[in-house]
Amino acid sequence: MDLQLRIAGAAGQGVETTGDLLVEAFAALGLHVFATQTYMSRIRGGVNWFDIRIADGELFSLRQHADLLVALSKEALEWLRGEVADPGVTLFNGSDGPGVTAIGFEQIAKELGGSAIMANTVAAGAVLAALGYEVSRLEELLRDRFARKGEEVVAANLRCVRKGAELASAQAGRLQAPRPVGAPTAICSGNEAVGLGAATAGVKFVASYPMTPSTGVFTFLASAADEYGIVVEQAEDEIAAINMVCGATYAGVPAMTTTSGGGFALMVEGVALAGMLELPAFIFLGQRPGPATGLPTRTAQQDLKFAINAGHGEFAKAVFAPGTPQQCYDLTRHGLELAHRYQTPVILMSDQFLADMRKNCTGLDTSYRPINRHIVENLGGDYLRYAVTESGVSPRALPGGEAFVTVDSDEHTEDGHITEDLEARIRLQDKRMRKLEGMRAETLPPAWHGPPEAGHVLICWGSTYGPCREAVERLNAAGQPTAMLHFSQVWPLRGEPIREALGDRRVTCVEGNATGQFASVLREVGVLSDCELMLRYDGLPFTGEEIAERVRG
Amino acid sequence: MNKHFFDSDIAWCPGCGDFPILRTLDKAIAAAGVDRKKLVLVSGIGQAAKLPHYTQANVFNGLHGRALPAAVGIKLANHELEVVITSGDGDMYGEGGNHFLHNLRRNVGVKAFVHNNQVYGLTKGQASPTSDLGFVTKVQPHGVISPAFNPMALAVVEDCSFVARSFAGDPQHLQEMMVAALQHRGGFALLDILQPCVTFNKVNTYQWYRQRVRKVEASHDPYDRAKALDLACKWGEEIPIGILYLSKRPSFEEQQVVLRRGRLVGQFADQ
Q1: Sheet containing A66-71: which strands, arranged edge to edge?
Q2: Pair B55, B26: CB distance under 8 Å
Q3: Most exposed of A15, A115, A372, B115 (fewest Cβ within 10 Å)?
Q4: What gap in Å lies between CA A65 and CA A204, rounded to an integer?
């Protein structure tokens, strides 16, 4: 039993505020919630919407059609009324029309709250009542949220909620709403989870240039900086950001940068620098559709091969692609640990869908638990920064101790100094590349969902996890045995176990790009000879129902 | 191949202005009382950027144009380290121009010693951002037509906390300037060093500079921004050397809330 609502309006109308308020209210009721935003690249006007799906079981993706549309502007109504399910309810911030219930959200907010800003509170009250839910939890949330602004602000918000609820209560019963089931009341978003994962793991330095959809991680870390002890600096450009991160890691602090495709393109020389200097640089890459500026506020999985291959020359690198906010948190920590154990850059890939995704979670650990940096005490003697070892990992000391720590972007000898000795070149290059073999041996295995004997396997990576997961459930429920294999680490890969797991089953790669990049990577590592592709690259995320329908043909 | 031939050999031409800069830097480090174990020399790419390999210090030899952001990252991670950039005009003012501009504003306490020879040496003689008008090269056969970049004037305008110029041909003056920069505690220090390139710049020779450099008079008040700008704009028949400008504005580290608690690298485990 699930239901989807869509809050839509112009940028600046409080679409996100209303959505966030409702997400919290639904979670507080004990419902499973899954939400994300779709917005245009503008600060005012246009049509933005916030989708919230609620259910009595765990949710993994959205549906295309909304059962309940709240249209805050005429444009929003015109754009989206065609995607309202039947039966459905549409609440419109205007006048009544066929199939449309008018509620003057802004008018009521002005009258009862003294400000049009409270239109989102009116809307939240109306939505809850239209679905037949109590508004008391929402009232508690508003009391908490506005307590420091004084009694009058709280009272005004409560008046708005109650009026919205009163006007929409006639709609109750038109839609069958799921019953609360005691789902986790905490809500996490993909970007917050990355930020919290980094702060708790001991990231001490962040340098970034803002770029959608990665900016949420940057702002989260800025808001957490004083509490966790992080220097967060807005760099003049992405080139500065990655080079500042390289400097900070050399001096011994875990450091990271956040960016999207175009900014990452600028960073790429610095990624190679981290590879050559053997520095644990951590890069959060939030994808959006390219090439060039592309669709700045939409979603895509188009930078996979770019990320895997980023950097001139050859060096060890790991690339992770979480599928849920929980995985964002876990893999940020794991990625930072791996970067430090192998002294090499690690990239965590997300995208706008996952960045803005909000979902119930059992509560992410906010306690500070610094990772092991694998630093050796700098005691001097004959310390060599790049001592050749079997694993390729050299003891890492920090500058400021007894021995000098020398690092050079030129090829260098074990002591870090520039060389053109070609035997040293082979020795050091082999040492660096041996780290990749160690990393490959501990690559996270892909996760299998669905019946073990299923004859058809959907392969996916990153944020496509949820939509595929729902599709698998739908297909199996419909008597079509289907499984999925989700990769949360996309580089390096171990081909053999994947090949064995797949056997001679029918395989479809489900990806948010136009060329099937992961299928290509799987061919490169000898997993697939060929496979079917299910691609989407219009800037919107897959839905579970869409994947299931496309599988059925 | 003979490894030792490549590794022990300094890559500079005999007579290069980089040699006196290297010798003077060694003396200045001692004179300023800098502990070499706490010293990090940061450079980008170019002939000047090789300097860190020829002395005793921690070394971060990074990418072309990116010495500044790397140095800033190091300093913010551990602000008890003395972080000194030794790189060229192409590296600092050309490829790294945006970092130069914004680090004048940021005012992190790193010291930039810019070997300014007004030419690209490592790539064999093209114009640099500081090449004079009319400077002829294989790439600019009709002479440079864009006016020279003025790092001193820009630094004064941007309220850089320490702005000085010296000349590789006057080691005593150079040492004084280096010591003053090393001992400066107010934030970013820029020391532009006029450095003859004996191979690719036949115009701005030791003699050319020697005839033009004039020490800033003792009466000059370096906190007087208008006078400092006046000095910074002088070039040609007369080139002022010395401390042109000092600002009293606070450093980045002093203002950064988290850094007031101590070294960032120390806060990692202590929290």
Answers
A1: A101-102, A84-92, A66-71, A2-11, A45-55, A32-38, A358-361, A186-189
A2: yes
A3: A372
A4: 43
Q: Does A368 touch chain B (CB under 8 A)?
A: yes
Count Cα atoms within 13 angstroms, Cβ side, for A319: 23
Contact B151, B100 (CB under 8 A): yes
Q: Which positions in chain A touch B38 (Cβ < 8 Å)? A: 400
- Closest partner residue to B258 (CB to CB) among A229, A368, A373 is A229
Which tokens in the block code for residue A192? Answer: 């917050």
Identify each DSSP E strand in A40-192 by its residue range. Answer: 45-55, 66-71, 84-92, 101-102, 186-189
**A400 and B78: CB-CB below 8 Å?**
yes
Considering only the beta carbons, identify the residue of B57, B73, B269 that sits closest to A246: B73
Enumerate residue ranges in chain A where pLDDT < 50. Answer: none
Closest CA–CA distance from residue A428 to any residue of chain B (Å): 14
Question: CB of B94 within 8 Å of any CB in chain A?
Answer: no
Place of tokens 């007894």: A402
B7 and A CB contact within 8 Å: yes
Question: Tell me, what amino acid is at A5?
Answer: L
Pairs of residues, one from chain A and one from chain B, whose beta carbons lie less than 8 Å apart: 177
Contact by Cβ (8 Å): A516, A524: no
Mean pLDDT score of chain A, rounded to an integer? 96
In this structure, the strands spanning B162-167 and B239-246 are antiparallel
Peptide bond preceding B222 in cis form (omega within 30 of 0): no
B255 and chain A: CB distance < 8 Å anywhere? no
Predicted local confidence at residue B271, as pLDDT: 56
- Contact assignment for A402 to B37 by CB distance below 8 Å: yes
Taking the CA of residue B220 and the nearest CA in chain A, the distance in Å comes to 34
Tell me, yes or no, if A314 comes closer than 8 A to chain B by beta carbon: no
Determine, for residues B78 and A252 on separate chains, whether the beta-carbon distance falls below 8 Å: yes
Block means of pLDDT (10 residues each) for chain B, length 271 residues?
A: 49 94 98 98 96 96 98 98 97 97 98 97 93 96 97 98 98 98 97 96 96 98 98 97 98 97 90 56
Interface list for A 455-514 with B (CB within 8 A): none
Phi, psi dihedrals of residue B257, rounded to the nearest 5°: -55, -45
Give chain A's domains with CATH numbers. Answer: 2-183 (3.40.920.10), 189-361 (3.40.50.970), 375-442 (no CATH), 447-552 (3.40.50.920)
Cβ neighbour number for residue A532 with a 10 Å cutoff: 15
Question: What pTM did the predictor assign?
Answer: 0.96
Confidence (pLDDT) at B270: 64
Q: What percent of chain A has pLDDT over 70?
A: 100
Percentages (nearest 5) of helix, strand, coil residues in chain A:
40, 20, 35
Asked whether the beta carbons of residue A413 and residue B71 sit closer than 8 angstroms, the reply is no
Which domains does chain B show, CATH number per domain? 13-270 (3.40.50.970)
